[in-house]
Amino acid sequence: MTAASATTAQPRQTGGLVPGSEFELTARDFENIAGIMKAEAGISLHDNKANLVYSRLAKRLRILQIRSFADYCTLVASPAGRDERGEMIAALTTNVTRFFREPHHFEHLKTSILPPLIAQAKNGGRIRIWSAACSSGQEPYSIALTIFSLLPDAGKYDIKILATDIDPNMIAAGKAGAYEPGAIAGVPPALCQRWFTPVKESPSTLRANDDLRSLVTFKKLNLIGDWPMKGSFDAIFCRNVVIYFENDTQAKIWSRMVPLLSANGALYIGHSERVSGPAERDLTSDGITTYRRAAGK
After folding, report:
1. I need a surface site. Which of 9, 93, 150, 279 has the fewest CB within 10 A?
2. CA dist list (Å): 153 to 128, 149, 210
């Protein structure tokens, strides 16, 4: 079935998991959607997320003129529904972020990680940092701002930040680097004035300037898929994303990250997250939800 072949008849008022809703979402529909999310993105959806699933996907049904979640599930499970599976995953991915979220991580980066790396960079060395699950870009730009606060001419050196996310819409937003006043409120005024410029068409919107954006490369990446990165990272930010994975998937993610950390490299995780599995042996605590790769590991 394709969107074009779906009937455009008006949906009926139904029961299902969301009584009285425009479209019927049955337990089987929810199970099918949850199965795809786990298989494709590693995200676990529990029964108490039925209202969230409904509210985010009902918009897709209206756009595609599909009358029921059963028909929608048929579409996204079919070869013809590959693009729509991506839209579904994007719709059901949580993208809560802000500049300098969990500020202790950026303070640790600034005082403990960057000073020796910057000294090395000035002598021809390199700095590599990965922002995993970067959402719309506030995290990697916060990392870049932290670097610029110590090294205003950072663009002259071999310094790169990789920003990845499963949602192509977030990748596009990060590349654009344009933020409304409320979204940019966490940036200190001096940094905001130096590294952001008003958008001509909407002066209240500020865009990361060319120098700031040049430090960050945005790429689509699924954390439970292939990781094409070959080099090591001096720091990895993987925050507030693995909480949506089951425990065994979380442990696998941490174990895959350890070999990508340089000697004594830092791993920053979310306030509700804990390192688990084999990675626990290879990482040592270095502050609140902050870890360093253990010596010799």
Report:
1. 9
2. 16, 10, 13
